[in-house]
Design a protein that fits this description.
219 residues, mainly beta, Immunoglobulin-like, five-stranded mixed β-sheet, binds copper (II) ion
Length: 219
């Protein structure tokens, strides 16, 4: 069950200029109290009109050294993603997830047409040739999202209001428990919150490769 250990820290009166958004510092911890990197954190506004539209223009999930460079990518519905291959062998990217089923048959040099993702939810990516290649796209219908860093921390910048704060990680033990927690952001008050999640054991770590394509040696 998603348990919240709250510790709101308020900093009042740090700025005399009118503030339109406040920082919410989120720390995600697992059952051993370790920070969880690569966790999706997102806040759904109670105001349905807030955050409409606004898709990212170009999202890239690269393949280098037989690995998807980004293990987790967060996008808005309607966003298109390109999957370049910077290895000198062919990859075959696919997903069977209900949120988006697609495949990009074997390719190497020519990057296939972008793939558009419209439905919120989880999209598990794989490669037909290399079983270990795994990554996820998580589609969220809000602009208020962030991915936790190596320490399990993320910062959301939120206009004052009430939100449902959600987390998602591919190893969540009970994803159905991810029903969100109500938080209230008040004007001129930065806040911090700790979220405790329970992860399944895994021998495969979910970590960002140091990455950084240097321009052409892989083709
Ligand atoms: Cu592959």
């Amino acid at each position: 069950m998603l348990k919240i250990r709250y510790c709101f820290i308020f900093f009042i009166g740090l700025s005399s200029t009118p503030t339109i958004a406040e920082s919410l510092n989120v720390k995600v911890l697992d059952q051993t109290a370790k920070g969880v990197p690569e966790t999706v954190v997102y806040a759904l506004s109670s105001k349905p009109e807030y955050g409409a539209g606004q898709v990212q223009s170009k999202v890239v999930i690269d393949q280098i050294d037989k690995t998807f460079v980004n293990p987790i990518t967060i996008i808005r519905p309607g966003t298109s993603v390109i999957f370049p291959n910077h290895d000198n062998i062919r990859h075959h990217v696919y997903s069977f997830s209900p949120s988006k089923t697609f495949e990009l048959p074997l390719y190497k040099d020519a990057t296939p047409q972008p793939v558009r993702f419209d439905k919120p939810g989880e999209v598990a990516l794989g490669c037909n040739i290399h079983d270990w290649m795994s990554a996820y796209i998580y589609v969220v219908d809000t602009p208020n999202f962030a991915l936790t860093d190596a320490q399990g921390q993320a910062v959301l910048t939120l206009p004052p209001g009430q939100y449902q704060l959600h987390t998602w990680h591919p190893r969540l033990k009970k994803p159905e428990d991810n029903k969100g927690s109500t938080i209230t952001i008040q004007a001129k008050q930065d806040a911090a919150i700790e979220l405790a999640i329970v992860l399944k054991k895994s021998f495969r770590s979910i970590a960002r490769t140091s990455g950084g394509f240097d321009g052409g040696n892989y083709r």
